[in-house]
Amino acid sequence: MTTTDVGARTFVATAAGRDLVTSDRFDVINPATGQVLATAPWVLPGQLDEVFAAAAAAGPGWARDEDRRRVAMREAAAVVEARVDELAVILTSEQGKPLNDAKGELGRAVSWLRYYADLEIPREIVRDDDQAFQEVVRRPMGVVAAITPWNVPIGLAMWKIAPALRAGNTIVVKPSPYTPLTTLAVGHLLREVLPPGVLNVVSGPEPLGAALVSHPVPRKVSFTGSTAVGRLVSRAAAEDLKRITLELGGNDPAIILPDVDVNAVAPALFWGSFMNNGQVCLAAKRIYAHRDIYADLADAVAEIAVSVRVGNGLDEGTRLGPINNKPQFERVEMLVEDAMRNGAAARAGGRALDRAGYFFAPTILTGVRDGVKVVDEEQFGPVMPIIAFDHEDDVVERANASEYGLTASVWSADIERAYLIADRLDTGQVSINVHGGGVLPTLPFGGHKASGVGVENGPWGLHGFTELQVISGPPRPRA
Ligand code: NAD
Question: What is the DSSP letter of 73?
Fold first, then answer.
């Protein structure tokens, strides 16, 4: 499959297990060329009544039969798995990431489906004796509205779809208008195995997302995106007391202690920062390096940055693709220029690449400090600012001095010392000697402070798609 094949395909929205007909379509750009890749259905807010009605109608049947849900989810995993190669070309063409990374994202989406299909949701019996029976049960909420960003489109959609469906909800998913195609294609494929109305996928520019949030039918909004939009979602959902999970921005610090073997940690640190071209909420975005190893570390990561192959994700050997879209590309350019005006030096990169598409050279900045935009704000691009520190207490304070609190990492040869620092960081996850080590289906992922509300993944993530119910009464007759 090639980008031409992607362009030739008609991507459709799914509602009630059928095509949702739209009168218009919008362009999706291939970030590796800056050209139109394909078009996507432009679903209008007024069409959501029909979509949510389909999701609501499917709810009772889907919620009733747990075994059937688990079987259908395993079948869904198999259907996606069988099409990973084809879907990966779509994902790379719309998102920019290298083909292997796209396959990895799809593979993880499959594993999330399987993890939740297998997860037990026990009924918790609090009391069962000759006086009383009391149990706590998790009930599905009903219809879920899910809204996703452009950086990890299908991976993050599956963080919502898998637990929501496992818990017995039905769902309407709205991917980012920058990257709707893979999610639309998966929605279409899963018609084969999921009952009509269980999984619905719509696409369109704003105000479609806002219309999902304010629609009266969904009882829960699961949102991944920026903190600014997260605040809007939170306000709109409050109107009729919808439940929310918000996975928002991050400005994640990595703290490198002076005892590390610089050459050994450099590759892992580099990829902790440049994964998905830095367009990951949890990428290491502020590197606090102890002054003793500061220069050596900057040299080591700069050496990697200049040797990494940047290009079209479909080309063999590409390790880093383009930035996904023009506004984000311009933002990264602005942040790097601002840093340079404020005394930063680019040890590698520092500029856009002179070619079509949204390519920016992997950039290592030294001579930066807290208070400069590229350090204080979420940059979300291929830029690693390295900041020197002298004292442990000071670096902990600086790492925590952010409105965000998504993840952090601590790097040291002294593992116990690293764990003690981890305990002092105000973030949803802290990894030792790796960045983002806790992103697994089994572990809760969520942000402190302005990085989010609630968590995804593991049983904790599933709990976010349920309401607790207590059932109590006289002793239950025994068989
Ligand atoms: P964004 O907030 O601009 O958009 C996210 C989604 O919200 C898109 O689907 C968009 O169409 C939709 N949207 C826009 N306005 C809306 C509104 N008023 N109401 C409802 N929906 C609306 O974010 P983005 O630029 O697509 O993604 C990048 C951001 O996502 C970064 O800040 C990144 O940190 C964050 N992110 C967070 C996580 C996490 O798990 N914490 C993961 C990935 C990305």
Answer: H
Distance CA 95, CA 318 (A): 14
The residues that are catalytic are: 247
| Cα(147)–Cα(173) distance, integer angstroms | 6
Q: How far is the CA of 207 from the centre of ligand 1 (A)?
A: 13
Q: Which residues pair with 131 in a beta bridge?
A: none
Q: What local confidence, expressed as pLDDT, does residue 308 receive?
A: 98
β-partners of residue 452 are: 247
Regarding the beta carbon of 150 and ligand 1, being less than 6 Å apart is answered yes
């779809």: which residue's tokens?
A: 161
Tens-digit pLDDT profile for residues 414-467: 999 999 999 999 999 999 999 999 999 999 999 999 999 999 999 999 999 999
Going by C-alpha positions, the residue among 21, 71, 20, 44 that lies closest to residue 196 is 20
Q: Measured between alpha carbons, how far is residue 43 from residues 12, 13, 172, 180, 276 in Å? A: 10, 8, 12, 12, 29
Q: What is the pLDDT of residues 385-396, one digit of tens each?
A: 999 999 999 999
How far is the centre of ligand 1, averaged over its atoms, from the C-alpha of 128 (Å)? 46
Neighbours of 463 (CB within 10 A): 17
281 lines ligand 1 (CB under 6 A): yes
Grouping H, G, I as helix, E, B as strand and the rest as coil, residue 388 is: strand
Mean pLDDT computed over every residue of the chain: 98
| The predicted structure's pLDDT at residue 419 | 98
Query: pLDDT-derived band of residue 478, with 50, 70 and 90 as boundaries?
Result: confident
C-beta of residue 455 within 8 angstroms of C-beta of residue 245: yes
pLDDT of residue 319: 98
63: confidence class by pLDDT, cuts 50, 70, 90 = very high
Indicate the top mutation candidate among 94, 105, 151, 220 to test ligand 1's pocket, ranked by most ligand atoms within 8 A of CB.
151
**What is the torsion angle, in degrees rounded to the nearest 10, for the CA atoms of residue 101, residue 102, residue 105 and residue 109?**
-160
- pLDDT for the residue 1: 84
Best probe residue, ligand 1, of 147, 172, 208, 285 (max atoms within 8 Å of C-beta): 147
Pick the atom of ligand 1 nearest to 159's CA.
Answer: 40
Q: Tell which atom from ligand 1 comes closest to the C-alpha of 456.
A: 40
Which residue has 């989010």 as its token pair? Answer: 452
> Ligand 1 centre from 152 Cα, in Å?
11
Buried/exposed code over 92-110 (b: 16+ C-beta within 10 A; e: otherwise) = bbbbbbbbebbbebbebbb
Per-residue pLDDT, averaged over 147-172, amounts to 98
Rg (CA), the chain: 23
Which protein residue has the closest C-alpha to ligand 1 atom 42? Answer: 281
98 C-beta closer than 6 A to ligand 1: no
Hey, what domains does the chain have and what are their CATH numbers?
Answer: 3-248+452-470 (3.40.605.10), 252-440 (3.40.309.10)
Confidence at 83, pLDDT banded by 50, 70, 90 = very high
